[in-house]
Design goal:
alpha+beta; 8 helices; nine-stranded antiparallel beta sheet
Length: about 350
């Protein structure tokens, strides 16, 4: 694993102390992560902070990654009996809560559906309607018990409430947000007040090295725009306080068959990829796992339901970018201001 620490020293103003920012960079969860933080008032050495962040991300990979064949999650999905650690138990509990809160629209026990369509941990492509019906009947958190225990041997059959096919789990809809929150929790524990944690999804608090609110670029959801920041729809300035900021979209993971686009957002209620004009949803929430979950939620339900949902929630803001007869249109909730580049 490659990592680097970059030091940035910025005088915020003539009346404030000289703040010291560092940037920790490396590879995790199939991409690059960047953690920027202010060392002012922190007694922990930068190298120790780096090592602790790396340890957190490595533990997440060992526990929750479906792409790591040696992870606890991969072993569980393979049908092996595992001894779950606290991280495995916590993620399962959070996924169950998200399932209930979203009325089954964000469902971590739908891994076989994603695999079948080629967007999961296994190869797949264009299943038949009968295949979808069969897999759908054996998917879903509704079939599983709500609680599991740390340190108790666990196999799929041990958590089944109904059915005879053991569950398979896929946490992709919330894992990166959860990772951001865990890293932020550690940074808070050592006294960090100004931070941005970017692990594909974002958690931020405090101010950037210029003493201003953190800014986040919202990618333009053009099909094939695979490089974050290459094409920007606009800029969002994070409000004061802790926030998770997550974008979900259907412009990076998809394929086309017979002229029809099949995107990676699967509706776990039907078993099929969604087909509507909502191209991306950016959600701002009190933490990153919540923002991650509800960005996926919006992408499943589509534009009108997503607008109604955001208008009803005082604890979240959102930006929805959608297709209107070939033109990009943007809808933002009252507290979400999208600035032009």
């Amino acid at each position: 694993m490659f990592f680097a620490i970059v030091f940035m020293v910025s005088a915020i103003s003539c009346t404030t102390p000289r703040n010291k920012y560092i940037k920790i960079e490396g590879y995790a969860q199939g991409g690059v992560y960047v953690v920027t933080l202010n060392l002012d008032g922190v007694d922990v050495r930068p190298e120790e902070i780096r090592d602790s962040v790396e340890a957190i991300l490595q533990k997440i990979d060992f526990t929750l990654s479906g792409y790591n064949r040696n992870s606890l999650l991969s072993s569980f999905n393979h049908g092996d009996t595992i001894v779950p650690n606290g991280l495995f138990v916590d993620m399962y509990a959070r996924a169950y809560d998200v399932y209930n809160e979203t009325h089954g629209i964000v469902d971590a026990a739908s891994a076989p559906l994603f695999d079948m369509w080629g967007f999961g941990f296994k190869s797949g492509d264009m299943p038949s309607d009968e295949d979808v019906r069969k897999v759908l009947a054996h998917s879903g958190m509704k079939r599983l018990c709500a609680d599991i225990e740390t340190g108790t041997p666990l196999a799929g059959a041990d958590i089944l409430l109904e059915g005879d096919v053991p569950p398979q789990l896929n946490y992709n809809a919330i894992a990166q947000g959860y990772s951001c929150d865990l890293v932020a929790e550690y940074l808070y524990s050592i006294g960090v007040k100004d931070m941005m944690v970017n692990i594909g999804e974002i958690f931020c608090d405090g101010f950037n090295p210029s003493g201003q609110p953190w800014t986040v670029g919202i990618d333009r959801p053009v099909d094939g725009n695979n490089e974050p920041g290459a094409q920007i729809q606009g800029i969002f300035r994070a409000p004061a306080g802790p926030h998770g900021i997550v974008t979900s979209g259907n412009y990076r993971k998809f394929y086309v068959r017979d002229g029809k686009k099949y995107a990676h957002t699967i509706d776990p209620r039907t078993g099929y990829p969604v087909s509507h004009g909502l191209l991306s949803a950016t959600i701002v929430a009190p933490d990153a796992i919540t923002a991650d979950a509800y960005a996926t939620y919006c992408m499943v339900v589509g534009l009108e339901e997503a607008k109604a949902f955001l208008a009803s929630r005082g604890d979240m803001e959102g930006c929805l970018i959608y297709d209107d007869d070939g033109e990009f249109r943007t809808w933002c909730s009252e507290g979400f201001v999208l600035e032009d580049m």
